[in-house]
Here is the input.
Amino acid sequence: MREEDQAAQRGAANIPRSDNDRAKLVLQLLAQGAAKTPEDKFNAALVLEHTPLTFCGERMISYGSYNYLLAHYLAKEAFEGGFKDAGILVAAAIDRYLSFTEGHQKYGTNRIINQKTGAEELVPIDRDVPDSERAKYGVPPLAQLLKMYPEQKRENSTGKK
Here is the structure.
């Protein structure tokens, strides 16, 4: 299923299942206790991290934001279990979860397309996370991220910029 997920992300044609179908299947497999090894957990996390998004007005929302949180914990278990490729997914999954639930991210892995300008922008990044923590999971330092992409303005608690 990992290969199918990755092919879908690259835009391959004739993928037998949608992102949503794959996420549902992974949830069923997790409920059956099928994810036993660090690699199994990584593969499950990868599929869940691609839970579909849709627009609601001008905002993108997730069909299942809690799937991103579960993906984070699965990736973290895989990483701590020795599957080092899971490091970036530990950061990316929690960033995606926070981006779509809180409007900011922890590490700086999540970018979106500004629907007004067409520019790719970083979702606002938590300045309290040290670069040493980013490096642990394979994320570039904050200064490097900000040179690569502009950062969206953080909305205040009322939802206004």
Helices lie at 2-9, 19-31, 38-49, 65-80, 87-101, 131-136, 142-148.
